[in-house]
Amino acid sequence: MTSISNKPVFQATLLQLAVAPENIRAGDDVDSEIDELAETLLAGQIQPLLVRAGGEKCLKDWLILDGRRRFLAYELLWQDGRIDNEFSIDCILCETPEEIAAAAIVANSARLEITKADYLLAVHRLMSQFKTPEEIGRILGVDAGAVRQVARLGSLDKVFLQAFKEDRISLKGLKQIARLKDADALSELKQRLEGDGEIHDYQLPDATRSALTAQSRLLDVFSLEDYTAAGGRIESDLFGELPDQLLDGQIAFDRWMAATQPIAGLLAEQGLQVHHMVVTAGDPPGTVALDYNYDSGSTYPERMDTDNAIESFKPSLTAALAANDRAAYIEALKDQALKRLDHAKVVAQPQAPVAAVVTFSQYNGLTIKFYADQAEYKARLKAKQTAPDAPAIRNSLVNRLKLPHARTRVDVQSYGTLLHQKVTSIAGKALACELAANPTAALDTQISAQFQQCLLHSYNSDSTTNLLKLSVGRIISLQRIDADDIRRPLVDRLKAWRDQYTASGLYPFEWVQSLDMTAKLELLALITALQVDTFEQKKQRAPPRCPRRGRPYRPRHRPRYPQAL
Predict the structure, then answer these.
(1) DSSP secondary structure string, 154-202?
(2) What are phi and psi of 360, to 5 degrees?
(3) What's the pTM?
(4) Are 468 and 449 in contact (CB under 8 A)?
């Protein structure tokens, strides 16, 4: 600006001037302070306008780069007849590209405050006409990359920029809109902002949510150089705030499959049927997963010993990733896979693992899941349930109830929660119908639920212990009933029932089922009797207040009828 201000001043008439398109406020409306500025200019012009030549195709000789409000004030004076169209206005000519860019961007303290939206538009106009990011960055003293970012935001639709200028959308939201490539999503956002609409950051779609980035755990087993050498493309975030995106997902998947093949091969050598894939397609047919639902014949300490052996590999895996040594990382994964197999053998007892799925998880990276033979597992469970010493719960209503089964496709897109809720709802309705048709089972369920919630104070949701969630009168606290209380014999009898339940080692429902009908009715009668609320709250009406003096009101004459207590 110093070199421009030292240039000579020349005079141009009002008819020779117009606002340049690269002016930082070229599209703004006339503000309310133009009248006051016009009166100031009648006393004399202090600051000359910064202009450039209009060019051959322009109808005006000079285009204003800085001084739009002063020009509008002169136009207002001309419309009021206070000056003529030949009135001379002081101007300074900006000739070089550097001078033009500096005049269009750099603000003078006498002007209105420049908003970020004005700055974005001005840089975009300069780039769209004749400036490169490097030239604009050199003039403004910023990096060329920052100029590209500003120009990208300035190229957005004016609806977005106007909303940003009016604080109806944040800078973070504006950047998120600039990343969107979906024309329908942009059109919908534009419609929401038209008028006085407002959009918060959380309401904007995340353009990178489903993208494969350079921070994916796929890259635990291969490098970005391997990906690009195979023809993979990388796209960097324009604003440098998000990780790079891998545009060719299939190439990344192929590299992961190739890098983890030694682990899958090692498990195959152990006699397992190995399914090696990036995205799991469900359990192998004819198998049952060795997860927490599996009825294992091993003990908890045995399973914990092998699980701790798996966890012992975490330091070496972390160190290999930190050192970017992927060969050492793969070797550590192979050793850990054998320990995982040892753990699966313990869990599968008395069976043995027959299959394994080697797949990818975004949170855990390489994931290995083991399976046992399903037919053998069902036969073992059936033999266990029909054994003479099998618990009563195995032959109870819970196991005899035939629940409907839904035919569903393999769940690979995180619909598991909704499917679980639907199946649970169907099973619950079927259970209700079964209880209505079986009064004895309904009575057992009612007694066991009240016994748990009122006496054991248990509210867990285990289907084998709590078939119904009932709202009962009150919780029975045996410790609060004194020895001289008339209800003490009832408490002693109920304590005896509780001790009998504790000694049985059964679940509440199966224990209630084991009682005869007389004992069931006695237990229900005791629980119901001790739920009666014997506490009576006595209320006494307070005397009315005197409305004027604030003292209790006392009638002068004796009332005709005695007051109620």
Answers:
(1) HTS-HHHHHHHHTTSS-HHHHHHHHH---HHHHHHHHHHHSSS----GG
(2) -115, 140
(3) 0.52
(4) yes
